[in-house]
Specification:
six-stranded antiparallel sheet; two-stranded antiparallel sheet; globular
Length: 238
């Protein structure tokens, strides 16, 4: 079973409403590998009538098949709890330039590059590190939904910084970074390097937060805390 086979199956179902035997076999094999929670999340990507809840973009897909890195398994224990920005940008880098980083701790390799330019929390250091790998990107504090949707449609995931502590009605804290890999009308699909966030209460639930669905309503209040179009993000070019 390959990623291309699964994407082909999804596109075929969306286009024709039918599925070929080899596509059915691939999806069946995938189902056997999923946990109950992952299976539920996968199911939620489709509407009740069988059409895709996520918009399929020719050549890229939605969500984008971005690798996931967990920040807390870092070999640098002093950096692990504070390297969400680096882990998110490492996912961006590895997706745009596959094979640049090696192994499940590829974000550690990227972190070392970042630290040659500044602190892991420094946006300028992140931009310079990405540039050193040949990825042109800018840091913005004026992003909104249209920027995320435009980037995903272009096949570019979007690292975003948001206030992850305090209740959703009054978000606060030093901030946290994740990477947006897809969207629906009501949700963003994200890889969160720290684990699943409780967006309502401002805590961290943990676990493998890969292809998590974060509601626009709750994430938006934390990401654009100063109003629409005030989101922090890294906007990269292919």
């Amino acid at each position: 079973m390959t990623t291309a086979t699964l994407r082909s199956a999804a596109q075929h179902i969306a286009r024709t409403g039918s599925i070929t035997p080899h596509q059915l076999a691939a999806l069946t094999a995938l189902d056997q590998l999923l946990s109950d929670q992952q299976r539920q999340q996968f199911t939620e990507l489709w509407r009740a009538d069988g059409s895709p809840a996520l918009e399929l973009q020719q050549g890229h897909g939605n969500p984008l098949l971005v690798p996931w890195y967990a920040q807390m398994d870092s070999a640098d224990r002093a950096q692990a709890a504070r390297m969400c920005f680096s882990s998110s940008c490492a996912m961006l880098l590895q997706y745009l330039k596959p094979g640049t980083l090696a192994g499940v701790n590829g974000d550690d390799q990227y972190l070392l590059r970042v630290l040659t330019y500044g602190d892991t929390t420094d946006a300028k250091a992140q931009i310079r590190a990405l540039s050193s790998y040949g990825v042109k990107a800018t840091f913005t504090t004026t992003a909104g939904w249209k920027e995320i949707e435009r980037q995903i449609k272009a096949g570019i995931p979007v690292p975003c910084g948001f206030l992850h502590r305090g209740p959703v009605t009054a978000p606060k804290g030093g901030g946290h970074w994740l990477i947006v890999v897809g969207f629906t009308q009501t949700h963003l699909v994200v890889h969160d390097p720290f684990g699943e966030a409780d967006l309502v209460n401002g805590t961290t639930l943990g676990g493998v937060a890969r292809f998590m669905r974060y509601s626009r309503q709750n994430f938006g209040r934390r990401w654009m805390a100063e109003g629409l179009g005030s989101g922090w993000a890294i906007i990269a070019e292919r």
